[in-house]
Design brief:
alpha+beta; 48% helix; 24% strand
Length: 130
């Protein structure tokens, strides 16, 4: 009785072992990847807020130190592709609400101080600066 020893391929045990090793390694990497995605989201929100701030200050300086809400809204829509939810200004204090990935954020700044603004989420938690 002779057996043909020329088998091709992998055994079932070998395939299960490789799959289990891949699953263990991927389960170790998932928390790290989730941390990176949340940091990227914060960076995206802050960068969008910075761009809105620059557009607002440009609108403020070109409008004889008055905000033109319609011009600001249209320029932000054309440059950034986002809709501003609300633009409010009161005695030099400006608050602009916007959405990034369907989540609401607001940027607050004073027109008298240069290059300082805060970004808050919809719950009022300050995201930038920390």
């Amino acid at each position: 009785m002779t057996f043909n020893k020329k088998r091709k391929g992998f055994t079932l045990i070998e395939l299960i072992l490789v799959m289990s090793i891949i699953l263990v390694i991927s389960s170790l990497l998932m928390p790290k990847l989730n941390g990176y995605s949340s940091k990227a989201q914060v960076l995206k929100v802050v960068d969008t807020g910075r761009q809105v701030y620059l557009a607002a200050m440009e609108s403020y300086t070109s409008g004889n130190e008055q905000f033109d809400k319609t011009k600001l809204t249209s320029s932000v829509k054309s440059l950034l592709g986002i809709d501003l939810v609300d633009v409010g200004s009161n005695a030099g204090e400006v608050s602009i609400s916007y959405k990034v990935d369907e989540k609401g954020y607001s940027i607050n700044f004073n027109t008298t101080s240069s290059n300082s603004f805060t970004v808050k989420d919809s719950g009022g938690t300050q995201i930038y600066p920390k």
